[in-house]
Inverse folding.
């Protein structure tokens, strides 16, 4: 049987199964098991790549993203099991809600993997829409005033974004139709790419604008980011982790697929400039907003916006160095951000609040969590020897590799990075050190996922194994 | 038959047919709501009765008040006579320009509004101001409709438009469909029909047209009523001439064709009357401040019709 | 004959656009729901006609799906929700109706200016259809932005999807996957909306989003 079908089939089957399991503890374990199996199967894809069909494709670009997604899903499911256990204990969640939660978690996994492996543009679109719908349900899990408002905002904004992305997809089909004829062929990415130079450039331009705005809303680029902070803050923390760590990546992946198509057509406008502009504005905007945040999850949500801005900027710059940096940053951010959310989730449970002002002196009261958070924040702020320092460094140097105008962009880029660095370290001071106050409940935290991620990020910062480097380079070349 | 004879025949025909048209509309409305209703010939009797009665004029009425009914009647009778009803070979055909027709109607409306203001009663003032509000939106809408139609037909002369619509391969065009709907909306507003104004209302506060002519009696009132009936005939004939011109006789064709054309025209009038009656009995009158939204919608349709015309020509 | 095909398709597309304007024009909630139902009916007719003209039987299925879900099931359900939750029946608007219409016309012009120049080598029918579809999408967006009631926002969103379906059926040969998926997404979306309406009702007494927006999460 084709490995890709298995990778997709496990989460789909698990979603159906988990809808029926009433015991939340068993559901949590089953959830973790399913995610683990998905991860294991995704590793087999490296060994033996399946054939490209009209619907599904595994190529250099998405294979590592599939593995990354499956891995982070798996570790998050482990975190989720202990997190949910605690929430039920304190009565914040009822068992009835959890069936939906676990089922939707697997459904979300399924849609993300489908989006990554889709060869058909329409199928990719359906998968991204499915991912939005499943997370909307999960964000509203707590059923509070704020949670419902956040979920509503999320749904409306991302719904509109997805609709615009569909329009862009239709335009791509329209521009491909004269050369490729009607029907499935004109929607299949692997068949569109070799013929992309025949498409009409103006129509392709218009299509890309719609696609960038549409999928860009899901990436969280300013000014389309309004749903992101609320969804992160009001949903359960495992969802914040997968949103930041995975969904943003998948949405950016969709944009990049189209960027590759655009790059193959010489007369189309350089899509990079628009991406650079949006990336930089997201970076600066988010960096400034970091200073005023009072809620810890909201703080890290803006940090996600900032990092997605950096990644978009990197891919917008183009060229082998910048693309390499972008890919590396995607991976590092995914791992680091989810680790941070693992820490934050348990911290918020321990202290009973998400307000930064009430979280103080964690290294004294909960040393394991406190130090984990410190490491995570240092990593995300871009300090060596962690991996993010490497990728940010590469992004900055890539600006010098281009013409003088682009090297000027290094200035706002550096300013943004420094601003974010400052805000995060400032906040970290108070949270980690300082006088502990307020209640400090003991929490059965699952520390393994968090430290595992941080270890990987540290390892990547110190030494990237050669096969991985080569592989990033191949994809970077493909991205143009 | 010569153009002159045809023209005279048309003038007599429209004058004779207008009250019958109004009578038919009233009869169908009554039937639709389950009443027996007056005979369709009743408007003739009403007009004759009014003509025989004494015209009571207020003491402070000026010459305008006395002259206005004649002017209004003359303008509307002329307008109705210019529209090609059964033939395009009328004597005054060269003057039957769509924009000139709009101007004729506008002058009639202007005179009525002034007459409403003349005596100085508050109800007249209300009616005149409301009518002007309606006109300020209805006229641009009408002009946009004319614009669309003329661009399609290549001329503003009504006879040319009718010929073009009848003979050329026009097909179903979106712009023309929108123009038709906009024209119908404008016609409803101009003729003081539901949903804009209720012609049978007795409540002064809900009146628009009736309020302006509240002070008239006797022969003046007869002329004004006849003018209103002619206006209805005019609009239905206009819609039929532009959008459903089949059956129109060309100049120089024989009496048999003309006779057929006459029956065709009568059929269109009848259809229009029935449609109007059905529409009036099925919806309610709008509140006055919503009339501007209604006519804004007509204006919007006219605008869209023009936009789509340019879109389809640009391709 | 070719002209008749073109004209009818064009006519149906324009009718969908006109109903989008009519949606902006409504003051009562039941009027909004009924206008949406009418728009779905016309959309179904447009899809069926395209199926006939292009010889693509799968478009008939799209038409049927649009008819059953969007013209019947969803409006009926929405009417029930409005009645059960006793939602405030008039529509509060952020801009006056006249101004909204003017902005609407501006958006239609924008859509035409965007689409026509870049599609100069496609068939005339496709180009006009695409311009009309983009106009409907933009008007749906306008409805969502200028209306404060949750039900009207949902309908604005679905009207936006109507525009997308119009675009998809107009571009000849688009495979079934997209069409079915659009219909599927609408269905799932509505189920979610249903959950929301009851959740929102549990929390507040009104579906007026003004109360919802009083939570200014950004201050924390």
């Amino acid at each position: 049987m084709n490995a890709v079908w298995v990778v997709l089939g496990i989460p789909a089957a698990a979603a159906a199964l988990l809808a029926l399991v009433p015991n939340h503890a068993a559901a949590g374990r089953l959830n973790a098991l399913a995610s683990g199996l998905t991860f294991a199967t995704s590793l087999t894809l490296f060994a033996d790549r399946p054939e490209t069909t009209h619907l599904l494709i595994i190529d250099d670009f998405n294979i590592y993203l599939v593995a990354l997604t499956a891995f982070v899903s798996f570790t998050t499911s482990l975190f989720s099991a202990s997190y949910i256990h605690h929430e039920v204990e304190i009565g914040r969640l009822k068992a009835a809600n959890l069936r939906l939660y676990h089922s939707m978690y697997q459904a979300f996994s399924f849609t993300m993997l489908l989006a990554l492996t889709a060869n058909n543009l329409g199928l990719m679109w359906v998968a991204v829409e499915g991912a939005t719908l499943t997370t909307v349900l999960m964000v509203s899990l707590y059923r509070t005033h704020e949670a419902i408002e956040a979920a509503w905002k999320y749904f409306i904004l991302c719904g509109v974004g997805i609709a615009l992305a569909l329009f862009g997809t239709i335009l791509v089909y329209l521009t491909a139709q004269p050369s490729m004829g009607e029907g499935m062929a004109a929607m299949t990415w692997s068949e569109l790419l070799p013929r992309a130079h025949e498409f009409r450039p103006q129509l392709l331009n218009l299509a890309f604008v719609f696609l960038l705005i549409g999928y860009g809303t899901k990436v969280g680029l300013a000014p389309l980011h309004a749903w992101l902070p609320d969804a992160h803050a009001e949903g359960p923390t495992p969802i914040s982790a997968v949103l930041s760590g995975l969904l943003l990546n998948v949405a950016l992946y969709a944009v990049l697929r189209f960027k590759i198509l655009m790059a193959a057509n010489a007369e189309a406008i350089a899509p990079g400039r628009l991406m650079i502009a949006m990336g930089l504005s997201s970076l600066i905007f988010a960096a400034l907003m970091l200073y005023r945040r009072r809620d810890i999850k909201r703080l890290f949500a803006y940090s996600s916006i900032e990092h997605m801005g950096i990644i978009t900027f990197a891919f917008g710059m183009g060229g082998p160095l910048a693309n390499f940096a972008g890919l590396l940053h995607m991976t590092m951010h995914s791992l680091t951000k989810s680790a941070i959310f693992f820490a934050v989730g348990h911290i918020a449970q321990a202290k009973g609040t998400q307000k930064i002002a009430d979280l103080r002196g964690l290294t004294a009261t909960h040393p394991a969590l406190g130090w984990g958070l410190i490491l995570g924040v240092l990593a995300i702020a871009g300090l060596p020897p962690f991996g993010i320092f490497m990728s940010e460094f590469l992004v900055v140097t890539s600006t010098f590799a281009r013409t003088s105008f682009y090297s000027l962009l290094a200035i706002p880029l550096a300013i943004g990075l420094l601003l974010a660095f400052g805000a995060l370290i400032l906040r970290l001071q108070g949270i980690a050190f300082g006088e502990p106050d307020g209640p400090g409940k003991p929490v059965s935290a699952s520390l393994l996922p968090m430290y595992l991620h941080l270890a990987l990020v540290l390892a990547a910062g110190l030494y990237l194994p050669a096969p991985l480097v080569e592989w990033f380079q191949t994809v970077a070349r493909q991205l143009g | 038959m010569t153009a002159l004879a045809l023209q005279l025949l048309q003038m007599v025909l429209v004058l004779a047919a207008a009250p019958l048209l109004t009578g038919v509309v009233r009869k169908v409305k009554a039937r639709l709501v389950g009443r027996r209703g007056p005979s369709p010939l009743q408007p003739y009797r009403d007009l004759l009765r009014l003509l025989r009665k004494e015209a009571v004029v207020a003491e402070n009425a000026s010459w305008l008040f006395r002259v206005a009914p004649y002017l209004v009647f003359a303008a509307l009778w002329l307008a109705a006579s210019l529209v090609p009803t059964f033939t395009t070979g009328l004597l005054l055909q060269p003057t039957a320009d769509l924009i000139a027709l709009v101007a004729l109607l506008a002058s009639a409306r202007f005179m009525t509004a002034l007459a409403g203001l003349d005596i100085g009663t508050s109800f007249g003032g209300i009616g005149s101001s409301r009518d002007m509000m309606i006109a300020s939106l209805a006229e641009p809408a009408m002009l946009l409709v004319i614009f669309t139609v003329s661009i399609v037909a290549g001329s503003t002369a009504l006879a040319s438009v009718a010929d073009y619509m009848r003979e050329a391969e026009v097909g179903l065009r979106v712009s023309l469909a929108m123009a038709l709907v906009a024209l119908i909306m404008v016609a409803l507003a101009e003729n003081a029909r539901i949903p804009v104004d209720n012609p049978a209302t007795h409540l002064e506060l809900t009146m628009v047209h009736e309020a302006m002519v509240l002070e008239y009696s006797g022969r003046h009132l007869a002329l004004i009523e006849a003018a209103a009936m002619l206006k209805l005939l005019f609009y239905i004939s206009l819609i039929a001439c532009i959008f459903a011109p089949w059956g129109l006789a060309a100049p120089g064709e024989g009496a048999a064709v003309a006779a057929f054309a006459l029956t065709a025209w009568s059929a269109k009038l009848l259809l229009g009357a029935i449609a109007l009656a059905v529409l009036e009995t099925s919806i309610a009158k709008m509140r006055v401040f919503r009339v501007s939204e209604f006519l804004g919608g007509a204006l919007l349709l006219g605008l869209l019709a023009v936009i789509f015309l340019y879109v389809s020509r640009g391709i | 004959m070719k002209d008749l095909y073109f004209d009818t398709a064009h006519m149906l597309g324009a009718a969908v656009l006109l109903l989008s304007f009519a949606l902006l024009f409504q003051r009562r909630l039941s009027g909004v729901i009924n206008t949406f139902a009418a728009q779905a009916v016309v959309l179904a007719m447009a899809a069926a006609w395209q199926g006939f003209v292009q010889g693509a039987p799968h478009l008939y299925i799209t038409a049927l799906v649009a008819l059953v879900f969007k013209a019947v099931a969803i409006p009926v359900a929405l009417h029930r929700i409005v009645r059960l939750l006793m939602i405030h029946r008039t529509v509060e608007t952020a801009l006056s109706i006249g101004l909204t219409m003017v902005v609407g016309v501006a958006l239609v012009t924008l859509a035409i200016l965007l689409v026509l120049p870049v599609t100069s080598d496609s068939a005339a029918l496709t180009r006009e259809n695409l311009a009309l579809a983009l106009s409907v999408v933009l008007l749906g967006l306008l409805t969502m932005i200028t209306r404060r009631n949750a039900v009207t926002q949902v309908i604005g969103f679905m009207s936006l999807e109507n525009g997308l379906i119009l675009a998809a059926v107009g571009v000849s040969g688009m495979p079934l996957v997209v069409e079915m998926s659009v219909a599927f997404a609408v269905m799932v979306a509505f189920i979610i909306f249903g959950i929301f309406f009851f959740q929102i009702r549990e929390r507040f007494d009104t579906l007026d989003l003004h109360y919802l927006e009083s939570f200014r999460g950004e201050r924390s």
Summary: The longest helix of chain B spans residues 122-153. Chains B and A do not touch (no CB pair under 8 Å). The two ends of chain B are 45 Å apart (CA to CA). Chain B has a mean pLDDT of 88.
